[in-house]
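Box S1 | Example of a co-folding query
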Amino acid sequence: KAKQRGRNCYEMFTPQLATQAQETLQLETSLRKAFVNHEFVVYYQPQVDTVTGQIIGMEALIRWHHPELGMIPPSEFIPLAEETGLIIPLGDWVLRTACQQAQLWYKKGHRLRVAVNLSLRQFQQANLVEDIEKILTETHLDPQLLELEITESVAMSDLARTMQVLQALKRLGVHLSLDDFGTGYSSLSSLSLLPVDTVKIDKSFIQTLQADPRNAAIVETILHMARNLQLHVVAEGVEEPQQQQFLTERHCHTVQGYLFSKPLTAQDFESLLVQANAALPRAA
Ligand code: C2E
Ligand code: MG
Ligand code: MG
Ligand code: MG
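Box S1 (continued) | Returned holo structure for magnesium ion
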């Protein structure tokens, strides 16, 4: 970058940048240690059926409990894990943990699908499909109870390869979803070709639903298109009852957001499950 700005640029040597580089290096070092020291935890955020009000699944979201810095959000360390390649063992661990947990809940009578995020680097791994198959076999989880989320941008980075990988994953029997839908650049034609089951409407559209009529129109259009393509829709970032009402009225199948619950530890999620099931009216 410094080079592009011309020869008299000493940007690289300013103390400020040196500090930034040092901080990144420190974070990288503690990221590696964190993995060994078991500082990562998988949280689960419920996904709720808009018709029955039932919890039908959850998204697995990684958390880092740093011994000194406290909770570090994934937005701060996932990109670094991605750059350093640590995302590969980390992503593998999240997948395994999430599958184990879903299988544990299944044995307790809760048939819930767990959604796990895949980053670009993970998606590009040559042995991705084999690794996932192995995790499913080892955890005994029904492949139908695993959902893999990739963002639109990851899907579009190499469409030909994406098609191959997604088809192979579909053959395993797992569900596939397009995350942060509406923020990337997938063309409508590629969307109809991709063997995905679900689109997740990005929370930026949901959160401005009332304030910006254009975003309301976009959400309506996505729901309409998804229905015609027979895709399942999850709306993320639902915080207000009015948002939920808007979505339910327009036949959005599933909602995920703080209105129902924040991401929870496995233990808290299980308590919520037991409470929520007890509160629901029994089927006749
Ligand atoms: P994402 O996959 O789009 O996940 C949804 C994010 O929205 C989560 O943020 C969740 O906590 C947040 N969220 C859910 N409901 C609401 C709401 O009502 N209001 C607001 N303001 N936010 C809500 P989180 O957990 O901080 O994760 C951020 C991103 O980090 C994720 O976005 C995903 O891209 C990435 N990420 C998280 N865990 C993993 C992981 O295990 N592997 C990979 N590769 N990426 C992950
Ligand atoms: Mg996601
Ligand atoms: Mg998302
Ligand atoms: Mg995201």
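The longest strand covers residues 55-66. The chain has a mean pLDDT of 91.
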